[in-house]
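Cross-posted from the bioinformatics board.
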Amino acid sequence: MCGRFTLATPLDVLIEVFKIQEVDGAIQARCNIAPTQEIYALRDCSPRRLEPLRWGLIPPWAKGPEVGSRMINARCETVAEKPSYRRAFRGQRCLILADGFYEWKKEGRERLPYLFRRKDRRPFAFAGIWESWIPRDSKGSGGMQQADPVLSASLLTTEANALVEPVHPRMPVILQEEKSWEAWLRGPASLELLQELCRPLPSEGWLSHRVDKKVNKAGYEDPSCMDALEGEV
DNA sequence: CCAGACGTTGTT
DNA sequence: GTCTGG
DNA sequence: CCAGACGTTGTT
DNA sequence: GTCTGG
């Protein structure tokens, strides 16, 4: 699973790595992105536009946005069939930008967070799906103003690779090459190709280390979140 | 037919 | 909206 | 994902 | 225990 991640790479580097052509809104370094918060995604190949989305896919039929708080992940094994996800999986895939992700290991009563990232610290993308949700006319508005649609997203999960497996049995679907970014975003794609892209990423070129439990608290964003605990590598 | 769910993880 | 369960 | 709340009535 | 909020 993946319930927290980081995106602390400077914007100019993201623009260069992902060939971003437009940037929507201000993006700031994030060390502990939590569900329901803003994430940054590319929804199209051309133009490649970086935009903020809400983490937690809100299906179009939802009565309120809180439905999205339990839709933060989609299993790649079932995403094509689940009523809440399949439409987005067919035609609304996105790349969620990241440069690290946290997974928790259960040790008795404790939940110990680990950070996973590339040795070279290059940013990468989670395979995501997005939806647009239109708020129902809220009671006092009297139809005066139509609320804007809310864009939201889930990220796909797959089996853990050798590096993640000791900590947790699932990990996010990671795309780290231009070719796979293109393939994930590009129009209609065969189920076969998409399944291929969802295989667990090999661990070569990646590192993990334990981090402080202060990461457990959503909203704690100090850069020291990403520091290795003493005695860890 | 209507009502109710629609998701993932991990578990003694 | 669409599917499942009763 | 983890942390924190988990309830109603009626009100200075 | 289970749900909601971040």
